[in-house]
């Protein structure tokens, strides 16, 4: 129902307000800033370098050469669009929703979820078992990048960390849309966000965070199918299966007349199963079903439809043999870079990284700068470069050195990782 959440949105009347706008450090004040706290977070994320690099990071199809295939930055903008539409209709804080959405994937590794799994597998001292906590997962890494890695220059030209509000930071780490949940409601307590050990388990602190979490799912389902069609990944048998899913879950056959409301309560805005129809109908269904009492939810037909659509995509798209072949290549790329950098710790301890990496100028340039900015590698140069960033990693500590490398690799784009890999193996 329209504006049904207006009385509990995140604003000055909400008892969570002061916690939501809390920052570790107060941002500079120009004296003429007309933006709200969450608008400032939105623009800080929009201007940070991790957001810019998303345009060359995989969504589903790796290092795409086709300009019309979705990359990570387009997915992020889809999520921002979907979540803003839902928040506006339900009467929630649109500014907070958009800030969370625009930054939710800044910690994503190159090569999509494959890259995420590769980096996690490379980390030593990893606990074994199917349900063991991951050392690397992109939701937590988005928070980590926002808190410790990404910087902007202040009015005096000093590079400082983003210092986002608690509500936005919470939305970054709690945004996992991979787990199917109905009746999503925010948690009541403010917690140490780094105490969260697994993605998708802890609910967001705000209703707006819940909207982004659900919008993440809405945004990728339709677009992944469209891109698979562009690459001829789906054959006619897959198309028939897709139509059968629509009929079985929504009760709509190919010869039936479509209307806004069907007898089972589901919504349909057209015959085609494409990005436009899927996103529109899932948004409309969610807005019609959600309430403060029931939480953020879909109708049962649409919830079942989404579940079946994810199963279809897993079988017909994500496990396509061409993508699986590229996964093997991606593992070679990232593990090679990892092993190369793990070997040079002793050179970092003696400030000789530039010398040992001279055969790989691209890697030398960016990794040396990374060490200056985020470690105790060269404090004098850090002062000269006017970096006011935290000392995040210790080059003398083995575990910290490994985390330093993994985080550096996670910031790479697909193309840059491939370029560095080819530098390393070329003679």
Provide structural commentary.
- This protein is mostly helical and 427 residues long.
- The chain contains 19 helices and two strands.
- The protein has a two-stranded antiparallel sheet with strand order 1-2.
- Helix 9 (207-230) runs antiparallel to helix 11 (275-289).
- The termini are far apart.
Strand order of the largest sheet: 1-2
Q: Globular, elongated, flat, extended or rod-shaped: what is the shape?
A: globular
Oligomer: single chain
Distance between the termini: 64 Å
For the largest beta-sheet, the strand count, sense and barrel status come to: 2 strands, antiparallel
Total strand segments? 2
Low-confidence stretches: 253-267
Helix content: 40-55%
- Secondary structure tally, helices: 19
**What share of the residues does DSSP label as strand, in percent?**
under 5%
Task: Assign the structural class, choosing from mainly alpha, mainly beta, alpha/beta, alpha+beta, or little secondary structure.
Answer: mainly alpha
Global mean pLDDT: 90
Gyration radius, to the nearest Å?
23 Å
SSE pattern, N- to C-terminal: HHHHHHHEEHHHHHHHHHHHH
């Amino acid at each position: 129902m329209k504006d049904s959440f207006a009385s509990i949105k995140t604003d000055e009347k909400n008892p969570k307000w002061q916690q939501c706008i809390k920052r570790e450090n107060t941002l500079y004040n120009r004296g003429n800033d007309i933006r709200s706290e969450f608008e400032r977070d939105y623009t800080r994320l929009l201007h940070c370098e991790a957001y810019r690099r998303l345009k060359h990071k995989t969504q589903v199809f790796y290092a795409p050469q086709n300009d019309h295939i979705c990359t990570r930055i387009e997915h992020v903008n889809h999520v921002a669009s979907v979540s803003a539409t839902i928040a506006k209709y339900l009467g929630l804080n649109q500014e907070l929703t958009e800030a969370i959405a625009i930054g939710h994937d800044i910690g994503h590794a190159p090569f999509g979820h494959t890259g995420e799994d590769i980096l996690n597998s490379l980390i030593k001292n990893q606990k074994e078992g199917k349900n063991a906590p991951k050392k690397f997962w992109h939701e937590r890494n988005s928070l980590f990048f926002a808190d410790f890695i990404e910087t902007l220059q202040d009015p005096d030209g000093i590079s400082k960390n983003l210092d986002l509000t608690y509500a936005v930071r919470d939305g970054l780490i709690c945004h996992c849309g991979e787990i199917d949940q109905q009746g999503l409601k925010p948690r009541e307590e403010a917690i140490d966000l780094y105490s969260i050990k697994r993605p998708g388990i802890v609910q967001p602190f705000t209703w707006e965070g819940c909207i982004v979490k659900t919008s993440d799912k809405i945004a990728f389902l339709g677009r992944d199918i469209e891109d698979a069609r562009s690459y001829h990944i789906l054959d006619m048998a897959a198309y028939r299966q897709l139509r059968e899913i629509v009929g079985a879950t929504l009760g709509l056959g190919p010869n039936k007349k479509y209307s806004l409301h069907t007898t089972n309560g589901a919504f349909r805005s057209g015959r085609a199963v494409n990005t436009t129809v899927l996103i529109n109908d899932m948004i409309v269904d969610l807005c019609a079903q959600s309430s403060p009492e029931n939480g953020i939810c879909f109708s049962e037909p649409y919830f079942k439809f989404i579940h079946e659509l994810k199963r279809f995509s897993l079988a017909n798209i994500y496990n396509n043999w061409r993508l699986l072949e590229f996964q093997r290549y991606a593992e070679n790329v990232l593990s090679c870079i990892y092993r190369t950098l793990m070997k040079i710790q002793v050179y970092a301890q003696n400030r000789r990284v530039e010398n040992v990496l001279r055969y790989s100028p691209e890697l030398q340039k960016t990794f040396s700068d990374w060490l200056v900015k985020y470690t105790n590698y060269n404090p004098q140069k850090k002062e000269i470069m006017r970096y006011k960033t935290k000392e995040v990693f210790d080059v003398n500590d083995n575990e910290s050195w490994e985390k330093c490398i993994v985080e550096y690799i996670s910031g790479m784009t697909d193309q840059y990782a491939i370029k560095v890999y080819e530098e390393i193996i070329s003679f």
